[in-house]
Amino acid sequence: MPSGSGLDCTHHMVNKTRGIITLYRHQRAAFAITSKRGPTPKAPKIPTTELPPGSTISSDNDESKKPLLIQRRGAEFSLTTVARHFGSNFTKSLPYLWENTVGPLRTAVTEKQHIDRQIQLERGDAAAQELVNSLQVLEVMAGAMAAELRPLLLEHLPHLFTCLQHPYTAVRHMAARSVGVLSKIAMLETMNGFLECVLPWLAAIEDCTKQEGAIEALACVMEQLDVDIVPYIVLLVVPVLGRMSDPSDSIRFMATQCFATLIRLLPLESGIPDPPAMSADLIRQKARERDFLEQLLDGRKLENYKIPVPIKAELRKYQQDGVNWLSFLNKYKLHGILCDDMGLGKTLQSICILAGDNYLRAQEYAKTKAADSSPMPSLVVCPPTLTGHWVDEVGKFCSKEYLHPLHYTGPPTERMRLQHQVKKHNLIIASYDVVRNDIDFFRNIKFNYCILDEGHVIKNGKTKLSKAIKQLAANFRVILSGTPIQNNVLELWSLFDFLMPGFLGTERQFAARYGKPILASRDAKSSSREQEAGVLAMEALHRQVLPFLLRRMKEDVLQDLPPKIIQDYYCNLSPLQVQLYEDFAKSRAKASVEDSISSTSTEEEEKPKLKATGHVFQALQYLRKLCNHPSLVLTPQHPEYKRISEQLIGQNSNLRDLQHAPKLSALKQLLLDCGLGGGGGSEGGTEAVVAQHRVLIFCQLKSMLDIVENDLLKPKLPSITYLRLDGSVPAGQRHSIVSRFNNDPSIDVLLLTTHVGGLGLNLTGADTVVFVEHDWNPMRDLQAMDRAHRIGQKRVVNVYRLITRGTLEEKIMGLQKFKMSIASTVITQDNACMQSMGTDQVLNLFSLDKGERGEQTASSSGKDSMKSVLDGLGELWDQQQYDTEYNLDSFMISLQ
Questions:
Q1: Could you give the CA distance from residue 172 to residue 455 in angstroms, rounded to a whole number?
Q2: Where's the Helicase C-terminal domain (predicted)?
């Protein structure tokens, strides 16, 4: 062809179209990954001369954009027409065009070999812009070139791979798109090269640029190949999974998007033969990865995880299965939701993996000193009523040598002090509100594990709390939730946005793909087509999230469960309760009790005066009521009544506020955790609302039942339906109340006194028992528990005991070895009452424990007299005293 005519014309056309294609492609490049490590290099400048003055390229509907789109389409059509016209003679007939297309690519690769990254950046935008232009032309023409020229194109495949490491985002973006096009026209050769050369870069955690180039190239290859990617899926899934926890937001987002596509196509892979020309190494690797995928999709095939540290508990089979699953997630750097039913031991399973991984990580670091195994703390975030429970559970199951928790709580000044203690602990336990308030502190710490207990708290991604929690950085993210999430499809997005951002797309995409069809199918007026679409959407969603959810129902593991699961729910005293407790410690009443107990009478036979014995009981009863609710003791007869009432008015508060009674706050949280009182009916109320759990609430005193009813249920949880059964209900009517509760599942709660509800009743309608107060004799509480746990009960019974920390209540129960008694259900007369305690122990009952138990000391010289006092006290735990509530009016006078 004469050089002066067609070639010059083509050259002019190429030059004209380059700017337009560059402009269009660069708009797309704006969405490419940008490096988060170190300064981000500037993208090549866009030639603005092609844009009409004042125009933008913001949206497809923009009128000013239409001429550019027409020009772009014309340019693409011209280039592809030229390529098809010249066929196999393209490179010979148009050498100048070919050289302008691949020449900058060769030059850039040569420079890459001889010039370091910094010099490349200093050379400025011009070289990068030229490279972007040539790659855009290559992308447009490659698909239209003759099959005979494919070997020539493939010669430049290594050059494209090299450009995936270029410091400029736009260059990497266009190189990735060009690799995608080559995979479409020469799949076998491109994929073999990609799997061997590029895919390993995903694991190059020291080079973010390589990772970004590799993950974007994979996304482009997947987009071009579509279902043709299926034979390679097994080899792609595991490397992509490894990046779903990458510290770089952009890499993590693209990895989760890629994985979401791969996992949906995975069922198609079964039975498809290996592609021809696949190397023996890749075939062996494929076999290994297929084994992994089988475990990912079928928990029964998981390897058994041997916990490397001593755990002071015998794990049941389903609990060991849960730990195996958490270990599997750990091994492949995955994240998930452990949504076992309430009471199946999610806390214990979490402690096992926390302690085990911390130990193995420390061992690895001692051997290798590798940065990726350096010591890191873990974080547990939970509702405020559970922080103390977590600290206690960790201490119960694991020694401080392996897990040393920091209870991060208290007012701001105390938390500021605790921030300096963080480095001394490998586990931090904090409430959601505290993490939200101190997010500036927490987001600057890199955690190993971040566990969200009752993680459905973040189900609304728009709240400040959710946004704060999602700023936490961790190697492994786990959500614990007993709330069934299969029915709350729209809330699932926010949970996965914490675990794996991007995995379920944007919130809008998720709502369109899953939420709308599923909600539409539930409408009573939905058509058969809408119902079918809803079923398909639900199945697709389950298939996508299934590998990252583990849920066991009580019914499924019932044969593996003990008859009762007993858990202590610890509360801290409110400031008002602490004040009253300390006032008691300074009072004449305390001195009188000490006199009674520490009497140094040498006459062993001498019986204590009944008045003295009664005084000890009154003091115990006073403190016990104080633990439950300050209003039970702060009556007008109390010497501090007027002063404290004025103090509360000044604080714009009153005695009935929940903030003064942590037991009521804890009970409220328990009921919410059971699915009660949360409002419900958000989907129009078309379904009957029947709670999954039904609850028995036991109190010793009728006055405490009144407080639960009038201060909590009626004003704070009005949607909870309840019945009440106490001594004021005539015996003849009690059975009808019991029968109604058992047979009407819409009644959520039954309020009882231990005396009335503790014997002779069958309350199998409930599966959860809460003790707001405790009987001195553990036998009575055991009998009360057995109201729900008896023949006919189909579900496991969860027993929760609300205990105020560091007080009479905790000490009595600890000294009685109550847990041990219940675990063995063998209670003898020796440990069934207070007679086995020593003098100093009983004196300690009257002190507020501010530190380690046993901090207070007392003389033990009066042990003989003490035995007599306690013998007398043993007779005072008579039901008549519970019924009359042992009048404390006269006792109040001694509180001066």
A1: 38
A2: 684-838
Q: Which of 895, 210, 378 is nearest to 593 (CA)?
A: 895
**Residues spanned by the domain of 747:** 564-571+662-680+688-850
CB neighbours of residue 815 within 10 Å: 18
pTM above 0.70, yes or no: no
pLDDT at 664: 94
In this model, does residue 857 exceed pLDDT 80? no
Q: Write out the E strands in 661-748.
A: 695-699, 722-725
Question: Using CA atoms in the order 144, 146, 151, 156, what is the torsion angle rounded to 10 degrees?
Answer: -30
Tokens of 589: 């009443």
Of 327, 354, 364, 333, nearest in space to 246 by CA: 333
What integer pLDDT is reported at residue 27 of this predicted model? Answer: 36
Could you say which DSSP state residue 713 is in? I
Q: Are 445 and 377 in contact (CB under 8 A)?
A: yes
| Calpha distance 377→432 (Å, rounded) | 18
**Domain check: are 327 and 403 in the same one?**
yes
Domain boundary residue, one of 151, 185, 219:
185
Mean pLDDT for 371-379 is: 87
Residue 42: the pLDDT is 36
- Cα(362)–Cα(385) distance, rounded to whole angstroms? 31
pLDDT tens digit sequence for 24-81:
343 333 333 333 333 333 333 333 323 333 333 344 456 777 888 888 888 888 888 9
Q: How far apart are CA 629 and CA 135, in angstroms?
A: 75
Helices 8-29 and 169-185 sit at what angle, rounded to 10 degrees?
A: 110
- Measured CA to CA, the distance from residue 761 to residue 780 in angstroms comes to 14
Cα torsion 347, 353, 358, 364 to 10°: value is: 180
Tally of structural domains, the chain: 4
Please return the burial class of 202, using the count of CB atoms within 10 Å of its CB with bins 0-12, 13-18 and 19+: buried
Instruction: Write the DSSP symbol of residue 602.
Output: -
pLDDT tens digits, residue range 534-579?
888 877 787 778 778 888 776 677 565 456 788 888 889 999 999 8
For residue range 196-238, list pLDDT tens digits in order: 889 888 877 678 888 899 999 999 999 998 888 888 888 888 7
Q: Are 244 and 335 in contact (CB under 8 A)?
A: yes
| Per-residue pLDDT tens over the stretch 309-323 | 999 988 988 899 999
Q: Are residues 508 and 495 in the same domain?
A: no
What are the φ and ψ backbone dihedral angles of 685, each rounded to 5 degrees?
70, 30
- 529-543, 571-585, 622-636, 804-818, range with the lowest pLDDT: 804-818
pLDDT recorded at residue 732 = 62
* DSSP string covering 283-339: HHHHHHHHHHHHHHH-GGGPPPP--SS--SS---HHHHHHHHHHHHHHHTT--EEE-
Q: In what order do the strands lie in the sheet with 473-480?
A: 405-407, 427-431, 378-382, 446-453, 473-480, 336-338, 549-550
Q: Tell whether 430 and 518 lie within a shared domain.
A: no
Handedness of CA 742, 747, 752, 754 (dihedral sign): positive
Query: What is the gyration radius of the CA atoms in the chain, in angstroms?
Result: 35
Crossing angle of helices 125-142 and 66-86, rounded to 10°: 60
| 786 inside domain | yes
